[in-house]
Amino acid sequence: MLPLPLSLDICFTTQTILQQRSQSQCYYPSKNEKFRVSSHSMWSDSLWIFDNLTPGTKKKYCRIVWDVPMTDGTNLCDPEYAVLLEELRILVWSCFIDPRNSAALAPASLTPFGRGINMLAVWMVENNYMHLDELDQRASERYREAVQKRIANRLEIHDFPECDVDDMWCEQSGGVSSAWVMHLLMPWSKIWSQRSALKDAGLGAIKTGKPFGGTSINKISEDLATALHTAIPPLPDEVAIEILNVAQNYMDSSVYDLTEISEYVAALRYCKIAKTTPDKFVQDFDFNSRYRSLKKWHANPLRSSGRLVGVRRLIDDFIGAASATIQGESGMRVSELLSLKAGLRPKGLPECITVRPSRSGMLNLYYITGMTSKMRANPEETEWLIGATPRDSKILPVAVQAIVAVQELLDPWRKLADENTSDLLFIDWKCPGFPNSEDEIVPMTAQALSRRQQTFFFRMVNWENFGDDPAFRVYKATKGKCIVTHQWRKTYARFLFQVNPKMIPAIARQFKHLSLAMTEKAYVGTDISLLKDIANENLNMTADLLLKQLRGHGPKHIGRLAKIMDSYKPDMEKIIEDANGQSAYEATRSWCANRNLKIFFHGYGSCLPGLAPTEAECHKKGQTVHWANKTPNYGHRRPGTCTGCYLFIAGPDTIDYWMKRYSDNITAWQKAKIAGVESQFTVAKNRAEQSLSYLRGWGVDVPLISLEDEVFN
Predict the structure, then answer these.
(1) Which residue has the higher pLDDT, 379 or 649?
(2) Global confidence as pTM
(3) Which of 50, 382, 526, 617 has the greatest number of C-beta atoms within 10 Å?
(4) What does the pLDDT look like over 50-70, one tens digit per residue?
(5) Is residue 548 exposed (0-12), middle (13-18) or buried (19+ Cβ within 10 Å)?
(6) Angle between helices 655-674 and 682-697 (to 10 degrees)
(7) Cα 240 to Cα 453: distance, rounded to the nearest angstrom
């Protein structure tokens, strides 16, 4: 007997159930027992939802789907698969309640483990395996081949469910994530490690040795990911340009009408205006009646049935068009886009947009502020350049127009949302029409936004306009529903690079990449001609920097690298001799190529580790010093480390970074001084002084920054 009764009337969390079942050693349900696996799910349910109570994690449920469709139209929940379904349930549950040879799985691991269980179930049915004890060494090898083939096929047809993208896509390698592959192989590892537990549960004994010939699934996953190093592709230029043109036309034509409808329906819903009903208002609404100069974008009237649902679809299309435009113009990840905050500044621009003059003063530069978390321990606030206009222009960049439109379109509903949703730029509604309550207004998810974009592409783009080029085939066949949000990021990078290969450092800064190599490898792609352009352009920049520094030409650079360059002057003078112009440049270029010298850009400066590999401070901190290390140690590369390195140099192109570093740190130190705790902020003061030294070295007129009566400059 259990210490406490488990019944449908008492809800226990997954953790409580596991604890009590373990104490009683009643691990699995007896015949006809109403067995609960969480506060949400019964053993016999087609969906298990586990409670995730891990501190510090988002309050979301972890789940595994048992309602798995088979390739022949049947389903895992059909009676003919009842035995196999029960064995798979016992396998999964045993990993939580009775782990053998490994730690118990955590509820948060249920979803990724479930992907592997689902694929195993489909594969077993396809290959006529109806029991787990029928699986042997040969079966494990066949399954490994099936996993490789499945992923290769998905890459070929661009089939990337948005819920899988974050796990499947490896930002650093530019291809398939080994961790994602490992989830598909994990059931085999558990079948082997849990063999005694399965036997104790009444299942047949596993008759094979360790699967995959004893090779660990970690090793197999890494090998498969390497073999499948095909990245999510950028959109063909023709496809991207057509989509963005259609999106802009749709937004220009519909924004006034949809915003008016959104405001009025919200007022009718919540203020209970008695003059009319939302449905009647939409029925009588004359699209474009106040904007005759615009092309008629929607035919009146909407269908008599489901008018509000029809308008909701138009708004969803607008969100798809706007989000695609912002991503296409900035290269932002979907998670970064969804981090944007709502709100308006006094001059009418959204809170997430700031405008600063360019260095020449001829342009207005528009920056968007959001959060980035990829490859960072914690989310960091950062900003992206999203557009530029002539200084006196009244026209906003297209992406800024899209953000303004989303701000105004959804603003009436943000005011009615709860505090977790009301400050977000992108929100969603959990209903087919317009929301009736606060609970139906929720944050937009990556999956939902991807569907908005795909539906817009499907409904609004004329795919018949594209020719028979094989590059367009998959887009025409699916009418854009194969496109995922991450492709905009790659499309943006590819386009900029094709315009000018010198944009690689700028792309890396825009993408907040920890290394230039990541931009080159993952985003520009593996096109041989582009890779050659990258290598040549980097060699050109390296030779140009060295030659200008050695001869004292060009803009002033600051950093200890100048001392290293001085030591090479005798050698370089022998090579260059009395050569001038192009001949001197070619000689320097050849000298750099022979030594495989490569400049690395860091946003706040550059370095040339190849000049003196053993002097790199980042390698000293990481204890990775070696004469052959001609690239930085990115794990230990920080501004404080780099500025003390003999291989670091910074030019006027980094002034914006050092100005912000100066401002942030001197402000922090002054606040500490006013509070009487300045001794705790000496690091901030030193950083401010260093930044100020750099700025003055470039002749920058640094403005006075003061708090109360404190002045520092």
Answers:
(1) 649
(2) 0.56
(3) 50
(4) 887 655 444 455 889 999 988
(5) middle
(6) 140
(7) 13
